[in-house]
Amino acid sequence: MHAWPASEVPALPGKGRDLQIHDSATQGTITLDPGPVARIYVCGITPYDATHIGHVATYNAFDLVQRVWLDNKRQVHYVQNVTDVDDPLLERALRDGQDWTELAERETALFREDMTALRMLPPRHYIGAVEAIPGIVPLVERLREAGAAYELDGDIYFSVESDPHFGQVSHLDAEAMRLLSAERGGDPERPGKKNPLDPMLWMAARPGEPSWDGGSLGRGRPGWHIECVAIALDHLGMGFDIQGGGSDLAFPHHEMGASHAQALTGEFPMAKAYVHAGMVALGGEKMSKSKGNLVFVSALRRAGVDPAAIRLALLAHHYRADWEWTDEVLAEAVARLERWRAAVSRPDGIPADTLVEEVREALADDLDAPAALAAVDRWVELQIAASGDDESAPGLVSRTVDALLGVAL
Questions:
Q1: How far apart are CA 117 and CA 301, in angstroms?
Q2: Within this chain, do residues 261 and 388 fall inside the same structural domain, yes or no?
Q3: What domain count does the chain have?
Q4: pLDDT given for residue 283 in this prediction
Q5: Rounded CA gap, 393 and 196, in Å?
Q6: Which of 55, 126, 253, 280 is deepest in the core (most CB within 10 A)?
Q7: CB 321 within 8 A of CB 315
Q8: Contact residues for 174 (Cβ-Cβ < 8 A; gap 6+)
Q9: What is the CATH number of the domain that holds 59?
Q10: CA distances from 195 to 105, 159, 162, 310, 322 (A)
């Protein structure tokens, strides 16, 4: 599966700072020192509907991570999956009378278009669950052989008790885990499981549903968590720098994935940092496909909204914060974009060397994008109110905003 084209990232004078970021596992801020090549895995979409603002808020956060690392003169090895076979996708296809593969391909293509328009840097490897199946099957077989998995009526489950570190990503108690498991794709009430929280690794073929040859596992399809583990281990290995996604993935998805990988390799941790973006609400409720309260990026683009304004609307909120999308949020972003473009359109201006360092410092401090925007706002206000004679300043500001915030002026 191919990703989307990359926009050029301008080079800035000097060098950025090491990234300090909040780690869900340690419940504190840590400083990441990835070495020459930074490794990041961000969980992708299940393509049964168009890209909404909640999606892009998450991907915007990890786009900032990449930009900080690139500014720090590192290479970035970024991997993202597409869950192109799963119950929600099959249910939507059945509801709408569509072929599930055509639905997945159409919505994945639309996602690529949205990411391109928003200037999100693409992953080096963009892998679908279906194409990952040949690598998933051996992992499930290894877990079963090691006694970390068991069969129940043809389905293969992972035993969470096989990983002594289980629970150290989300830090939830058993009852909270049980409730979230039921809400987010698990089956804690199924009789016969060793532990109600045990997640499925391999689902035996069901009538009328797609299935693949699983070797000794029989025909079936993979569970959600093992999909990401197989892709991450194949392309990044253990101990990669960031496992990223929305805060709703901390449990069960990232918790289970970490345990799968740790049981497979005997190494800990799977990732040096587990980084989670906040949720975006609409009308007082979390924006989600199940609720249907969605603002689609493609719809905003069709309505003539500049993608740069959409990015500024996202950047106005700290990535870990829960916030609400409103018409006012978008209007403020549109007005900010107009002010910034007017300021950099002048032939000369106020010196901007200090601004570059202020934006770098803000982003290195747990991706504080609102502080970065405030720094640019201050330069813009001075630029509009006073005259300057630095001919390089407008161009430097434009390159800084592009390179570090992904906004083309």
A1: 9
A2: no
A3: 2
A4: 85
A5: 60
A6: 280
A7: no
A8: 197
A9: 3.40.50.620
A10: 36, 7, 11, 44, 32
Q: Which domain holds residue 332?
A: 325-405
What's the CA dihedral at 209, 233, 74, 9 to 10 degrees? -10
Choosing from 259, 282, 297, the residue where a domain stops is: 297
Q: Is 399 domain-assigned?
A: yes
CATH code of the domain containing 380: 1.20.120.640
Write the pLDDT tens digit of every residue in 50-91: 899 999 999 999 999 999 999 999 999 999 999 999 999 999
- Give yes or no for residue 289 having a pLDDT over 90: no
Indicate whether 32 and 126 sit together in one domain. Answer: yes
176 and 273 part of one domain: yes
Residue 377 CB: number of other CB atoms within 10 A?
14
Instruction: Report yes or no on 104 lying in a domain.
Output: yes
pLDDT of residue 291: 72
| Residue 308 in domain | no
Do 239 and 360 sit in the same domain of this protein?
Answer: no
| Residue 31 structure tokens | 């400083």
